[in-house]
């Protein structure tokens, strides 16, 4: 089951997503998290904390599950 992460802006960055998904406590932890975990955005591995995520994007993180970016709850 995919968890929904709701945004009310055009996009969020991968670093912001990690905080919204409660995978990290602060934005400063994003670089470390991305270096320690395999993160896939729409099926492609991506380690850039500035990567823009838009509604409909799917983020998969090994051992943490799958998330979908949504504009409604």
Automatic annotation (TrEMBL):
GO terms for molecular function: RNA binding. PROSITE patterns: S4. Gene3D superfamilies: RNA-binding S4 domain (3.10.290.10). It holds the Pfam family S4_2. InterPro entries: RNA-bd_S4-rel_YaaA, S4_RNA-bd_sf. Keywords: RNA-binding. It comes from the Bacteria. This is S4 domain-containing protein YaaA. It comes from Rossellomorea vietnamensis. The gene is yaaA.
């Amino acid at each position: 089951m995919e968890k929904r992460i709701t945004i009310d802006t055009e996009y969020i960055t991968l670093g912001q997503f990690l905080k919204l998904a409660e995978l990290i406590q602060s934005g400063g932890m994003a670089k470390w998290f991305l270096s320690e975990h395999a993160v896939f955005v729409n099926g492609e591995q991506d380690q850039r904390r500035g990567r823009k995520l838009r509604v409909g994007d799917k983020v998969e993180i090994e051992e943490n599950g799958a998330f979908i970016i949504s504009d409604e709850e």
